[in-house]
Structures are given as C-alpha cells and as structure tokens.
Specification:
The complex is a heterodimer of chains A (381) and B (118).
Chain A (H helix, E strand, L loop, with lengths): L7 H18 L3 H5 L9 H10 L17 H14 L1 H20 L2 H7 L1 H4 L6 E4 L15 E5 L2 E12 L6 E7 L9 E7 L5 E3 L13 E12 L3 E2 L5 H37 L1 E2 L2 E2 L4 H29 L5 H26 L10 H11 L6 H10 L2
Parallel strand pairs in A: 1-4
Antiparallel strand pairs in A: 2-3, 3-7, 4-5, 5-8, 6-7, 9-10
Chain B lengths: L2 H14 L4 H7 L4 H9 L6 H10 L4 H5 L8 H8 L1 H10 L4 H20 L2
Helix pairs in contact in B: 1-3, 2-3, 6-7
The chains are: A alpha+beta (381), B mainly alpha (118).
Chain lengths: 381, 118
C-alpha cells in the first residue's frame, strides 16, 4: 500500500514554491495572458525558474541539480500550475527535454549537457517532437538526420515547441531512415544557437498563452555524433519512455490548474451574497464545491501514484496515462464548474477564472489527447 | 501503439533461438510473467530491456522496431529515391480536386498504353 503523505522535506519545498508563486506569479500571470499578441513570458517567470533552478529538479545533486524524485516534482509542478499553468508547462517542457539524457546519456554527455540547466539561468530546454503531419503518430516524423563525417545534418520543421526562442537547447527527434517509421527515429541534443536553427513567430494559442510556443526550423543543422542520445535507432523507445514519464508530470500540471479554479470558486462562493446570504449556503453551490474538491483529490492521488511507480522503477506506463487522462479531464470539469459558479463574472476577462478554463482545454491536448490516453490505457489492459 | 508488434517479434526470435519464456527471462533478469507481458504487448518495454533481449537473442535492435504494418508515405519517399516523382507530387499539390482527377486519368491512360504495348 502506498503512503500518500508528504515528507517533511516535500512539505518545505511545497510551501516555499507556494509562497513565491503567490507573491510573484499570481499578480503577473493574468496580465501577460491578456495581451492581444503572444509575447515572451513575464520576467517573474524566468526569475522563479532560474532562482529555484526548476529545470534541474531531476538532475542528481552530485551533478549540480536538485536531486528531486518524481513525487517531489509533481508537488512542485502542482504549485507552479496553481499560479499559472503556462509557467508549469515551461518547466515540464524542460524536464521532457532532459529526461532522455538522464535516463540513457553517457557520462560524457551528462557532463556536457546537464550544466546547461544547472549553471544557466533560467535554464530552459525545448522538446521538439511534433510536426504538422506527425502528432500522436510519432513514427511518421519526417525531420531527417543524414550522417556526415563526425556527426549528422538535421533538416525539418518542428511545431508547437514550448520554450521556443528562450530555450538554451532542444531535444530533437529525427529519422535516419525515412519510411521505416519507429525504427528510424533518433534523439539529438541541438544547441539553440546552432547554425541553421531558426524559431518562427509565437503561436497565438487559446490556452497556456504564457508558455511561449513556436515552430523550430532546422535547415541543414550540423550536430556532432556526441549529441545523439542513446544509440542509433533508439529514438522511438526513448521517446515512449519520456512521454510515459512526462504524462505523470503533465497530470500534476492539470491538478494545479484545477486547484487554482477551485480555490477561486470557494473564495467567491463564501464572499458572494445573494438573497441575503453567501451563495455557499446554497446546497447546489456547496455540493458543486464538494464535487470539485473530491475530483481534484482523486486526480492528485492518481498522479502521485504514477510518480511513485516511476521512482520505484516499477511498471508505470498505464498508471501515468490514467493520471494524465483523469487529471486533464478533472481540470476541464473543475474549471467549467467554476465558470458556472462565477456566473456573468466568468465571462469578464478581468476575473482570472476564464484563463484557467482556457488553459485546461490546452492541457488536455499536451502529451496526447484524451483519446490517446485511452488508447495507451486500453492497449495495456 | 506498436508494442504488440514488438512483442510478437520478441516471441518469434525467442522461439527461433530455442528458448522458452522462463529461460530467456532468467538470462536477462526478468520474471517469466514480465517477459510474457512484453510479448503480449501488455507491458511497455524501453531501451534498456530491449537492448538486453536483443543481445541475448543475437538480433539487432532494428529487427524488433521495424514496422511491417506501416504504409509508406509517398510524399515522404518520393523526395529521397525519385526526384521526378517528388516533382509530380509537389506540382499536384497546387491542383484542384477536379484537376487531380484529370491527372489520375492521364496516368491511368499512360499505364493502359504501356500494358497494351501502344
């Protein structure tokens, strides 16, 4: 039986991030989100990520990182998302980009690439997988890697890359054998300043608007052979393992989003008076809040369960997909319930609730839609 | 999701090597139940596990990963092997649906001529 109580250290980390998020992120996030054109994230986001070294949370202490396990990572990501889901998405994208190096990188690769996150501020990475014709079907990736003396030339265009333009490096998935699907996939670390790498205009997204997202084009970008992660042909397995782990921390982002909406709804229900009493005194409202609180707790426990399986090196693929599926649905439901509760104020952009509702819709597509999660879960029944 | 096909290939390679599940599982430090789930595609295996299986069964990693069920993407393939085919595909992208049908009919006509020796 798993014990879901936080350790003393985890509680301290949780409180530290919660305090800082409330002080520096909550005032900034809605303002940045409301800009008519997408722009860079607020400086407070980058300061928090850099000063708390969040991109290095899974890097062992011996290598200069924070040495957190996934369970602690989930606690941190929930707190970040409770302040701004876009901020949490920026950190999650960085974790996606470095996880394959941590799992299978050589000692030399770790010595070379990990300092990009442990020594730089803010220390961000980008996870460059998706293409216009290769979303969930990752084996259809068309970005090419051609062997050259001493390395590879990469050519192709990645889309929906979170942290595009502010990441110090990208983890790029490309094919050495076009037409061979998963057998041709490979993972490469590409520095953001590599010749031939360009970033497109920021996407004007519905949700997670505070996480800068754009295309990354690779025009004959040379990377040395030492930038291939794993071995030739190992990209598919590395990608699946990264996505399976990533679903657990995407689930934590969804939990934090739902919690933020719930906390706003609870405060509003206590404060808003109609017919001579606070609306929380109405059973219809208090029952809705009870539903929200229960849904969030269930999502959180599924998320922590998946993280603990990862930390224990047990089979976690299905648990992580269940956590992502349930939590992102919970975020959609809870934010929609909160919208109902806020009534006409929900449709006024000066109230932060509609932002969370939009963020939840976008979180549902990150790391695979609901249907992709169902496919993973069903395939493992 | 691909894991069932990978699992079938593990089973095939194991049987070709004359090993039962218990024997292979013992050699790579797994339980027989875990290996059985890998073969059935009911548990995802990752690089470290497939490398161990690949070493033990003397098969390259690619043997397990190659796809037999993926249809080739003509537009992806055309650019690599046949520049003229690529040009046809690229030009056709700008045509209307009706114009594309005319091109298809002309291609069928050319193939008919070839078949009939005209």
């Amino acid at each position: 039986m798993s014990d879901f109580r936080l350790t003393e250290d985890q509680e301290k980390i949780q409180q530290k991030i919660r305090d800082r998020v409330r002080r520096t992120i909550l005032p900034e996030a809605p303002l940045a989100d409301r800009q008519s054109a997408p722009g860079p994230p607020p400086a407070a986001f980058l300061e928090l990520i850099g000063e708390e070294r969040l991109g290095a949370m899974f890097i062992p202490r011996a290598s200069g990182g924070l040495g957190y396990d996934y369970a602690t990572g989930a606690v941190v990501l929930e707190e970040l998302a409770a302040g701004c889901p876009g901020l949490a998405a920026m950190v999650a994208a960085t974790l996606h980009a470095i996880v394959p190096v941590l799992m299978t990188g050589t000692l030399e690769q770790k010595q070379r690439f990990l300092p990009w996150l442990t020594e730089n501020s803010p220390g961000l990475g980008g996870f460059a997988v998706t293409e216009h014709q290769a979303g969930s079907d990752v084996a259809a990736i068309n970005t090419l890697a051609r062997p050259q003396p001493g390395g590879y030339l990469l050519a192709g265009t990645k889309c929906s890359v979170i942290n595009a333009g502010i990441a110090g490096f990208y983890l790029v998935f490309a094919s050495l054998a076009p037409g061979k699907g998963r057998a041709g996939l490979n993972a490469f670390i590409v520095p953001a300043n590599a010749a031939g790498l360009t970033v497109g205009p920021l996407e004007d997204k519905v949700g997670l608007r505070n996480a800068p997202t754009a295309e990354v084009a690779l025009q004959e970008v040379f990377v040395p052979a030492s930038h291939l992660i794993g071995r030739e042909g190992a990209g598919y397995l590395l990608l699946m393992q990264t996505l399976d782990r990533g679903r657990a921390f995407s689930a934590a982002v969804a939990v934090g989003t739902a919690r933020a909406a719930f906390e706003l709804a609870l405060a509003y229900a206590r404060e808003r008076r109609q017919f001579g009493r606070a609306i929380i005194k109405n059973q219809a409202v208090s029952f809705a809040l009870a539903e929200m609180a229960t849904t969030i707790q269930a999502a959180r426990l599924l998320t922590w369960h998946a993280c603990r399986l990862i930390d224990a090196d047990e089979d976690y693929s299905q648990a992580a997909a269940m956590a992502k599926y349930f939590s992102s649905r919970a975020a959609e439901e809870v934010t929609a319930w909160a919208m109902d509760l806020f009534g006409r104020y929900a449709h006024n952009k000066t109230y932060p609730i509609e932002k969370l509702w939009r963020d939840a819709k976008t979180i549902a597509t990150v790391e695979g839609t609901h249907n992709v999660q169902r496919m993973v879960i069903a395939s493992l029944l | 999701m691909g894991y069932k096909e990978i699992g079938r290939k593990i089973q095939k390679a194991r049987e070709e090597a004359g090993l039962n599940q218990e024997e292979l599982a013992a050699r790579i430090g797994l339980s027989q139940a875990t290996l059985s789930n890998y073969e059935l595609g009911k548990r995802r295996l990752y690089l470290a596990q497939l490398e161990a299986i690949s070493r033990e069964l003397s098969k390259p990693l690619q043997y397990f990963l190659e796809e037999n069920d993926r249809l080739p993407d003509p537009s992806a393939q055309a650019g690599h092997d046949d520049p003229e085919l690529k040009e046809i595909v690229e030009l056709a992208k700008n045509l209307t649906s009706g114009e594309k049908k005319q091109v298809v009919n002309y291609l069928k006509f050319l193939l008919w001529q070839k078949r009939e020796g005209k």
